[in-house]
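User: quick one, fold this
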Amino acid sequence: MGYAGLQAHQAVNNGKSWEAAVPASAKAGVSRKNMKKILVLAGDYVEDYEVMVPFQMLLMLGYEVDAVCPGKKPGDVVRTAIHDFEGDQTYSEKRGHNFAINADFETVKVADYAGLYVPGGRAPEYLRLNPRVLEIVREFDAAKKPIAAICHGPQILVSAGVLNGRHCTAYPAVKPDVVDAKAQWQDANATLSDAVVDGNLVTAAAWPAHPALVANFAKLLGAKISI
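Assistant:
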């Protein structure tokens, strides 16, 4: 769907349904009935690229994507943060965009979804305090449904207790949490563009890995993509 997917997301934020928001030309050849649904766990100050770009990439691939946040309803927004590296010992953080929530966290049923996407930024550090967030992650993992997590997103996986013995990566500052969770830490390459796959789990360290992360996530979902 590409640009049409972005238009749809903006329209949903203005109160339209998915069906009304997506132009007919973009829906051609895509069966709404048979479309796989993906759940995205977002929160205030989620990293801008890490929520907006995968959301659009998954729409482009033909998936229906529900972005949810505890305490927010469809039509609400979360504020994003832009993380950058400007010569300091850690990343800088700047205000990003408003990202639209288009589904209700309170009504999430894992059985309705084919996969889970967990972006990074500052949102995971507080989202993991929500018991239902952790239950959702555990339910996806118990069902062996694909889970993708990037940057600080694995903090939620740590708190959910699903990383024991798993090979994974994350933003380097999250390594102590991942190791303490008894996961097998995998170093990303120098460009942070690698993704690590272990069963139904795919993880990456930062947004330069979006092509590898989303492609491997889509493969786990059953799509045929060459990378």
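User: anything notable?
Assistant: Residues 1-8, 12-34 have pLDDT under 50 and may be disordered.
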